[in-house]
Design the sequence.
């Protein structure tokens, strides 16, 4: 073997060893990324049907989180055709995530209805978020694969059309629904109604919250979820155009400030297109409470899975009291809500500069 060939072999071996050491330190066994299969294999079906909730113990706090990154194209013209297209992609993705033993999977903003154009009051098109055909289909999907799901959609909820994420448990029950609080100007002009709270949902492994797209622009959103006990925040989004440095500074800061796992789920470019600035951010995955990316789907269609231990505390050396401070516990102890009244003062809300 030539000296150059031996050097290449040594570099590859060292890179593999370094990656294994990193995985051990990060506490994640799930940095692997896989593209979606066009058909569901017999092995995937067997693995999925054989999954049992609680294999790691009913109170296990070690879970595998799947960020499902689909492509940003749409097939079909009518609302029914578009819904069927999305359902097919979502079904394939959930089967693949189940094959890879994910416990919970999340999709992008309005994943079940993206691309549908219809008046907001057309109830033949826009369903009830938790009771309509899409909810019943998704509940059966969660039950079949014994997987918790976070499925965003445009739908009616609590008497109004909203940008909503419905959460399903792995028995097919509805764990709850979150309506996007911070709507964009365009959404408000189109008749979407905002939510008015940041609920946290109980799952067997821990507490989950959701922010949708523009919500992340406001640090109060993530902090409200953290104060309600959220340990994981799912963030389905359509973000684009901000620029990488600014975007990822904001995204990572929400995980760091609140000592939560942040699950970012966007879209890959359309088939045959290469990613460039201004497109949906892609790179869906899980960010840990230190701001580290535990999984990243890159710019292609695929599923990024990370395994996390929710009992692992974020330690902040010398944060306030001692050498190894529990960051989350001490943030809660040191904060001064009695001085934050200006944040919640309605008189401080500005007017749109348009």
Sequence:
């Amino acid at each position: 073997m030539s000296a150059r060939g031996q050097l290449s072999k040594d570099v590859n071996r060292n890179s593999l060893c370094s990656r294994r050491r990193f995985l051990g330190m990060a506490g994640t066994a799930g940095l692997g990324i896989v593209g979606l299969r066009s058909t569901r294999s017999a092995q995937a079906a067997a693995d999925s049907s054989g999954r049992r909730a609680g294999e790691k113990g009913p109170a296990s706090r070690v879970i595998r989180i799947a960020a499902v990154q689909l492509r940003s194209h749409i097939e079909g013209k009518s609302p029914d055709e578009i819904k069927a297209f999305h359902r097919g992609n979502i079904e394939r993705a959930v089967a693949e995530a189940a094959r890879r033993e994910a416990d919970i999977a999340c999709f992008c903003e309005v994943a079940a209805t993206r691309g549908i154009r219809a008046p907001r009051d057309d109830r033949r098109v826009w369903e009830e978020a938790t009771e309509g055909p899409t909810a019943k289909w998704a509940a059966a999907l969660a039950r079949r694969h014994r997987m918790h799901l976070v499925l965003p959609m445009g739908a009616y909820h609590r008497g109004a059309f909203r940008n909503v994420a419905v959460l399903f448990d792995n028995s097919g029950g509805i764990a709850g629904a979150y309506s996007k609080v911070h709507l964009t100007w365009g959404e408000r002009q189109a008749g979407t109604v905002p939510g008015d709270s940041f609920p946290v949902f109980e799952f067997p492994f821990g507490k989950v919250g959701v922010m949708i797209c523009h919500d992340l622009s406001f640090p109060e959103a993530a902090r409200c979820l953290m104060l309600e006990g959220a340990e994981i925040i799912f963030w389905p989004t359509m973000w684009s155009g901000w620029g990488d440095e600014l975007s990822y500074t904001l995204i990572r800061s929400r995980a760091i400030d609140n000592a939560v796992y942040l699950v970012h789920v966007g879209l890959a470019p359309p088939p045959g297109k290469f990613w460039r600035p201004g497109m949906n951010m892609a790179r869906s995955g899980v960010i840990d409470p230190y701001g580290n990316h535990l999984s990243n789907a890159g710019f292609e269609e695929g599923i990024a899975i990370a395994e996390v231990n929710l009992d692992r505390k974020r330690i902040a050396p010398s944060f306030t009291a001692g050498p190894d401070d529990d960051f989350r516990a001490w943030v809660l102890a040191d904060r001064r809500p009695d001085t934050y009244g200006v944040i919640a003062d309605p008189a401080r809300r500005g007017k749109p500069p348009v």
The two ends are 69 Å apart (CA to CA).
